Amino acid sequence: MFVSAIPFNFYSILTLIFVVMLAVMGFDYGKMAGFEIKAQQEGDLNALDAESEKSDAREDGRVIDLILPIVVLIIACVIALIYVGGFFDSTSDYHMDFIGSFGNTDATVGLPWGSLIALIFTIIYLICRKAITFKESMASIPKGFVAMVPAILILTFATALKNMTGLLGSDVFVDNLLGSAENLQIFLPAIIFIVACVIAFSTGTSWGTFGILIPIVLAVFPAGTVLGTIGMSACLAGAVCGDHCSPISDTTIMASAGAQTNHVDHVQTQLPYAITVACVSFVSFILAGVLTKLADWAAYLSIPVAIALLVGTLFVIKHITKKKASAPVVAEATEE
Length: 336
Description:
- This protein has 14 helices and no strands.
- By secondary structure, it is mainly alpha-helical.
- Helix 4 (64-84) runs antiparallel to helix 6 (107-128).
């Protein structure tokens, strides 16, 4: 079901095309345009704690110094997760079963162990490389904790909000809402997309939204139909879209924390872009649902139409942005 839903996951597909098209067309809009101009003209990247950064970069640094610790982190975390899940335990039901042990693991135990192993490896590696001293490596650890405090606090509040919406019975509410719309089946994918966006945006989790909506979607549509596949795609796409836009999403929080930028600025600059793709995706889900009435294969025609619609939308936005940018110049010339 997941694999068959990939071609109709309009938001994910169109987002990738959107990023490439925006880079090729060479323009920005919304809040991002203002920050881009500020960065180009003043060199201000709006980074946090920019004044405290030290210009002590080493000239003998290598790319491997960055890549190797990350590779070790990934490998260590995966091994730790399957270890906790019982992969190496001969008495476990998931002994030597990678998929089973991965599904049976406890991430709150496995991930800290994997991170600790990667941290120790990185310290030893950089000391052996003589890139840093032991004293410098120990001094960097509390700095890392301090840098993560804002992200941890936001995630804590986000988790509290997620738990509250769950206790309020959001899944039951959504089930009743979609159940009453069964007569509008060709429009259901678009409705599911919007509902998934709202839930993921409010709770800050795409996986939590999957847990709420996927059982409902499977129950609403007839089994094995193309419309059901499109409905599943709408559920997946909407959850990712809402998670992408949400200021309390862990991915959004970690993105701004990793880039050391103001979290609110990060959300405000990406929202116009995400909403643009979401609007095109919404129209595409309506089109895909309507085309299923003609024939099952006709639904696939919505994919090239969605791409063409996105490209056309970008050209219109670029024209409007260019027109607004030239308006002050024309006004000044008229006054003179």
